Amino acid sequence: MKKSNLILLICLALYIASLPFTAVYAKGHEMSGLACALLGWAEMEGGGIAWMANPLLFIGAFFLLLKQVKIAAALSLIAFGLTFCYLSVGEITVNEAGHQFPITGYGPGYFLWIASCFTLFSGCIILIVTSKKNKDQNPT
């Protein structure tokens, strides 16, 4: 299996694994990773910009498939950084009525989401470094 395909597989597996787990604990409520992924776009003000890590992660994965590793690395680094913006969010909307509750903690879904972004970024860096090593060892 190619390194790039393995990186994409691990990244996707971590992302999918994050969906059923609790991502955010709010006072008296829990939000699953799936709920955050589907509804996060609705709260773009403040730290809600962290949701933008999702499309950037998938666009980065697409560029990795196109063998544009440096672009994929840049996009996945931005996605990885955006995941930490969520730590600045104080409240989250927990129902259709728009009720917001203070965030009291983060669950395994949040950390698996971070891990998926980090996997894509670190995998791209490994591909860049190993490709440079191969060029240095086999000059043409």
Kindly provide the radius of gyration, computed on alpha-carbon positions and rounded to a whole number of angstroms: 17 Å
How do the helices and strands follow one another from N- to C-terminus? HEEHHHEEH
* Helix share bin: 55-70%
Low-confidence stretches: none
Q: Tell me, what's the shape?
A: elongated
SS strand fraction: 5-15%
Pick out its properties.
alpha+beta
Notes on the protein architecture:
There is one protein chain. The chain is of the alpha+beta class. It contains 5 helices and 4 strands, in the order αββαααββα. It has helices at residues 3-18, 33-39, 53-65, 69-83, 108-137, and strands at residues 22-26, 29-32, 91-93, 100-106. A 4-stranded antiparallel beta sheet has the order 2-1-4-3. α3 (53-65) packs antiparallel against α4 (69-83) and α4 (69-83) runs antiparallel to α5. It is elongated. 30% of the residues are buried. The model has no long low-confidence stretch (mean pLDDT 88).
Produce a short descriptive summary.
With 140 residues, the protein is an alpha+beta fold.
